């Protein structure tokens, strides 16, 4: 077993399983993706640390435990179409691809979108389409989606994104409220969206979801 594989196994046993991530489909999906290949070469030795990993240009891979708990809450099924917003270099999309029928991976940083497309192709991940576009806009023309996952903390969830959910669809994210991050799930039922808090979770802000500050006299 390689050093990276040992680190991946340690991450699963010490970070995920003790924190309510015990669904074997999700464990297998994470175990099947070499996280170290989606980070800068200089960071590969710390790819599995239990914190958000800086990958440059103000972007991060979400802490493994928070990411895994969001994926768990999303209840992704094998026939689901998933929108992965802020996919960065493609790690999250690669994991989700092991759970879903198809993934649309949206990334507004063109450099990262290009990297994600290459890395996913190199890893033989064939059921992900990487798209370069604004995070907050989503990809309505590819929807509606069974699941939408936002890969970072947001100040708000645009209604336009919620409307890209199918009936019965779920959106999971970490939202900043009163200076504290909380994981949220939005469920669409009969055209009505309901919101529920899941757990406290502080992760870096994802660009593109900033709330415009009003002019103050």
UniProtKB/TrEMBL annotation:
Transmembrane segments: none annotated. InterPro entries: PCMT, SAM-dependent_MTases_sf. Keywords: Methyltransferase, Transferase. One of its GO terms (cellular component) is cytoplasm. GO terms for biological process: methylation. One of its GO terms (molecular function) is protein-L-isoaspartate (D-aspartate) O-methyltransferase activity. Belongs to the methyltransferase superfamily. L-isoaspartyl/D-aspartyl protein methyltransferase family. It comes from Kordiimonas lacus. Coiled coil: none annotated. This is Protein-L-isoaspartate O-methyltransferase. It comes from the Bacteria. Pfam families: PCMT.
């Amino acid at each position: 077993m390689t050093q990276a594989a040992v680190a991946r196994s340690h991450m699963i046993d010490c970070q995920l399983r003790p924190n309510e991530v015990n669904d074997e489909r999700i464990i297998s999906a994470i175990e099947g993706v070499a996280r170290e290949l989606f980070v800068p070469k200089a960071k590969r030795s710390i790819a599995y640390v239990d914190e958000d990993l800086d990958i440059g240009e103000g972007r991060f891979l979400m802490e493994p435990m928070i990411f895994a708990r969001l994926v768990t809450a999303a209840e992704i099924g094998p026939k689901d179409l998933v929108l992965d917003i802020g996919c960065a270099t493609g790690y999250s999309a690669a994991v989700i691809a092991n759970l879903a029928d198809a993934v649309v991976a949206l990334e507004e940083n063109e450099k990262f979108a290009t990297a994600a497309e290459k890395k996913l192709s190199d890893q033989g991940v064939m059921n992900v389409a990487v798209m370069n576009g604004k995070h907050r806009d989503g990809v309505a023309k590819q929807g509606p989606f069974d699941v939408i996952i936002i890969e970072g903390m947001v100040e708000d969830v645009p209604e336009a994104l919620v409307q890209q959910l199918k009936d019965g669809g779920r959106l999971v994210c970490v939202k900043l409220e009163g200076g504290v991050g909380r994981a949220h799930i939005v469920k669409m039922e009969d055209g009505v969206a309901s919101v529920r808090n899941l757990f406290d979770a502080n992760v870096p802000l994802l660009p593109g979801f900033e709330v415009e500050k009003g002019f103050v006299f």
